[in-house]
Amino acid sequence: MDLIQHQDSPRYIRLHPDDNVGVVVNEQGVAAGGRFADGLEALEGIPQSHKVSLLAIPEGGDVVRYGEVIGYALQPIAAGSWVTEAVLRMPDPPALDNLPGATIKAPVPAPLDGYTFEGFRNPDGTVGTRNILGVTTTVQCVVGVLDHCVDRVRKEILPHYPNVDDVVALSHSYGCGVAINAPDAVVPIRTLYNISRNPNLGGQALVISLGCEKLQANQLMDGDPLTNGMEEEEWLFRLQDSSTGFVGMVEEIMAMIETRLKVLDQRRRQTVPASELVVGMQCGGSDAFSGITANPALGVASDLLVRAGATVMFSENTEVRDGIHLLTPRAATPEIADALIHEMDWYDRYLERGMADRSANTTPGNKKGGLNNIVEKAMGSIAKSGTSPIAGVVSPGERIRGKGLWFCATPASDFICGTLQLAAGMNLHIFTTGRGTPYGLSMVPVIKVATRTQLAERWPDLIDVDAGQITSGRMTLDEMGWHIFQLYLDVASGRKQTWAEKHRLHNDLVLFNPAPVT
């Protein structure tokens, strides 16, 4: 990364020697006539995080960032010009046939031994970073009653069980009015099944059902190790079976919750190796600095997690699609490369059914933050994956069964991606943002990383990490990666709370349902 260093003069960042555009660093942008330290003159005003052409680019010429073509010039672009979406034609996505697979044999770094955190051991061998009771729901119809119960439990009962962090209703909008036997209906069903088994929930089964819905409780719990040896009435409450009205429903549900709180309250943290971490990485409200500061820092920390024997996942199909040719060579085996290609192909066809394509991903906020199109956004997004071999691919709603770096195939929607990473088994979440978002999840701590110091300073009680220190020279990329790695251990141990936890900022679960709604 080349950074023009003069703090009070126009500055830009050039990430790769082949790049013919740079990203403006100055908070107020660069005015027309502003001269960069290398002599380049801005021909017009260029906002912060937007691109300046470093060379004259002819009509039809390649516009290159990250060493990759992010567009073709629709007209001649003079050196010093503001490179906007309006002057670019987006490239076609990489073809999915004949991609290189498992061709990069990176040297194996030394293991990172001796790092631990304080976690909660579960009966199935997983480890939680929090001790939470999750109450599974089969259908949206029960949410009002359950939310009332959970609110009362938190006020009246939970204070008596100080070793339990929270009670969470696993509420969603699925369960009825859906084509429950359609082939793609397996996605939301297995998502909810696996969310109920997230490591942070401690293995205490409790399902609240209406009774007449299409998604029946036995599809989520019956015959499972979570309910082994229990009668149905011990783990399931159907509202339609109640003969005592609303008040009676509430009292019965609260009693079932308290029975489980007594069990969870007996648990204590114990020292476990860092290899028990399952970290989900995500970005939202991205800007052009996402691929310069925050996401590459997560990539450094990701490599450290892999060296420590942990599990770390990156996601978001549409924000990987244009970089797939950079990822399949990193697959540990040809079969894993094929699995990556399969997920990209499936999602291409899913978008086609809705008469959309990957270009629908880029938001007005992304563009205001300097990201011209999904190609540029994807190149910054995949920086989270670091340099480790890709050890596996997990389809939507499935559970990761292994260590190392995994691709969790999800839509790019923040809420759906987070939900599917919960189903995949993550016990800790990290989320980078350039534009800013109060995103949070109730089941896992969410560490928020700002791409720019200006955002971190404006939102000091929402942002946990200021990755903008990389561009200011206060921290190197490696130092920021190590800082995030250590923060993982502190947050996982409960030694530190994230701002999202402190403020109880929690988004709803959003199940991915590619099947028809009836």
UniProtKB/TrEMBL annotation:
The keyword Transcription regulation does not apply. InterPro entries: GarD-like, GD_AH_C, GD_AH_second, SAF, SAF_UxaA/GarD, UxaA_altronate/galactarate_dh. CDD domains: SAF_AH_GD (cd11613). It comes from the Bacteria. Keywords: Lyase. GO terms for biological process: D-galacturonate catabolic process; galactarate catabolic process. SMART domains: SAF (SM00858). Its EC number is 4.2.1.42. The keyword Lyase applies. Residues 19-89 form the SAF domain. GO terms for molecular function: galactarate dehydratase activity. Belongs to the UxaA family. This is Galactarate dehydratase.
